[in-house]
């Protein structure tokens, strides 16, 4: 007679939260980077180097180009594909001189009445001691202030990670667009978990709490439009992803050009003044 051996219960692993799935897609190593969009969607790109104060930041690019034949300015952070490139570009995290270079280029665009496009895929500004010594916080704050009153149409697109003030310094724009599987957040989930629970392994829980995926961020009014991606992410069909981004950029630029500069500035101010409100006033 067989003995009745108690069966050990097996608990099924908890499903991976959708927010963490999108985080991994936003960080996918084969996902198109800002420079990929610049090369695919713009022509006659002529890069502007240096911030006229300290150095030429390898993690930031800016230059004049043409979008459907119209002269514009494009700005984006650079991450690099190989380990050597990533190290040189500090994994896409700009120094203060990177933000100052971007702002210098934006002021040139403003002088000549050229629309500004920014492309963002960074975990945050470079947090090193050298960056703080050269005024990282001031550089980011100045970009935020100056972008809020640029007298030209501005469109920012978060293509992967949009992290903290490092992203915001390029995203105070008339239209803020975000790809479907991108994230836009005040802090990385790993850092949030380390601060909140003293345990960075709780990053998936932090990702759910931060509500930084495209749908959540759009519901708070932090982005104006979410751009769909090919199934599985932009890395599965980069050419089609570029077509989708191109169509949205063209549409939003056309809408913005119908407004006078004064109306443009008033609408930009009203948008950021009322962003992310979650309360009502009696």
Automatic annotation (TrEMBL):
InterPro entries: Acetyl_CoA_COase_a_su, ClpP/crotonase-like_dom_sf, COA_CT_C. Component of the acetyl coenzyme A carboxylase (ACC) complex. First, biotin carboxylase catalyzes the carboxylation of biotin on its carrier protein (BCCP) and then the CO(2) group is transferred by the carboxyltransferase to acetyl-CoA to form malonyl-CoA. HAMAP family: AcetylCoA_CT_alpha (MF_00823). Residues 5-255 form the CoA carboxyltransferase C-terminal domain. One of its GO terms (molecular function) is carboxyl- or carbamoyltransferase activity. Belongs to the AccA family. Its EC number is 2.1.3.15. This is Acetyl-coenzyme A carboxylase carboxyl transferase subunit alpha. Keywords: ATP-binding, Cytoplasm, Fatty acid biosynthesis, Fatty acid metabolism, Ligase, Lipid biosynthesis, Lipid metabolism, Nucleotide-binding, Transferase. One of its GO terms (biological process) is fatty acid biosynthetic process. One of its GO terms (cellular component) is acetyl-CoA carboxylase complex. The keyword Lipid metabolism applies. It catalyses: N(6)-carboxybiotinyl-L-lysyl-[protein] + acetyl-CoA = N(6)-biotinyl-L-lysyl-[protein] + malonyl-CoA. It holds the Pfam family ACCA. It is found in: Cytoplasm. Acetyl-CoA carboxylase is a heterohexamer composed of biotin carboxyl carrier protein (AccB), biotin carboxylase (AccC) and two subunits each of ACCase subunit alpha (AccA) and ACCase subunit beta (AccD). It comes from Granulicella mallensis. Pathway: Lipid metabolism; malonyl-CoA biosynthesis; malonyl-CoA from acetyl-CoA: step 1/1.
